[in-house]
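re: that chain from earlier
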Amino acid sequence: MLNINQFLISEKIILCVIYKNDILISTTCEKEGALILPYYEKRPTEYYAFEWRGLYSWQLHLHQQLELLFVENGTVLVTIDYQTQRLHTGDLAVIFPNCVHSYHVPEDAGPDNQLFGMVIVPQLAGDFCEPLSQYVPQAPIITADRLGQEATYAVRRLFEQRGAFRPIMVKSYFQLLLACIWSELSPVQDKNHRFDDVPYRAIRYVMEHYRQPLLAKQVAAELGITQSHLARIFSQRLHTGFNEYVNKLRIQMAQDLLCTTNRPITDIMLDTGFESQSTFNRAFREIHGISPREYRRRFQQTGA
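^ sequence. v structure.
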C-alpha cells in the first residue's frame, strides 16, 4: 500500500514523502518547479540517526530540520548560534531548525566517547511543529540531571528507529520528548533576526550550493557584500578562510557518504562538488591523513 505525504517546508518548497507498507521508499523536494534534494547533508529522508565514536568534528552549518545530539558516554563541545558549551554523559543538545551549529569532540574525550544524533523534520513533531518555527530555545543544552527518565527513554527509543524507520513511532517518541523538555528549553518568540544576519546568509548559501563551483567573488556578489567583507566574516565569525570552509564542508559530506552508503567513490567525489579525483584525494588527506578508500575500509572494520 502506497502512502504519499506532502509537507510545506516554505512558501516555495514542498517535501513529498512516499511510503510502501510504512517503509520509506522515496523522498523528493520541489522548489519553484525544479527537483532538489532536501537537506541533511543532502540525505533524502524525514529522519536520520547517526552514531559517533572516538574523535569527531563537524564545522558550523545549518539545516531546516531539528537536530538532537545525546552524549551516551564521554564529552563533546557543541556550538549553537555561536555560543559554545561542553556536554557530558547524559546531556542533550536540541538544535532548532535554521540554527547555526557545530560539534567538536576534544582530544581528552577518550577512546570510549559515544554520541547519538538524530535529525528530524519538524512535521513529525505533531502539535510542536508550528512552535518549532516560531520559537528559539534560550537553553538548548539540557544536562543529565534536568533531562529526566521519560525524556531519556524517548531519546533512546528515537535512536533505535534508525534500524527500521517507522514514521508513526518516530512521531510518537519525538512528541513525547518535546513534551518532556519544552519548558526546560525556555523558548522565546523568534523575531527572525538571524535571517538578516550576514554570516547566517553566507553559511546558508554555501550549504545550498557546495556541489557547484564556488568562488568567493561570486558568493559575495550573491550576498550583496564585497569580497573583503566576506573574507572578514569567515575569518572573524567562523574562524576559517572561505576556501577552507568550502573544502572542509565538502569533505565532511563525502566522509558521511563513505560511511553510510556503498556508492562508488567517484560518484561521491562528484556529488560533493569536487571536479577531479586528485583534488578530492588531496583535500581528503589534508583533513584525515588517509585516502577516501582507506577511510571507508577502516570505518567498515571498526565502525568508527
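Confidence is low (pLDDT under 50) at residues 1-44.
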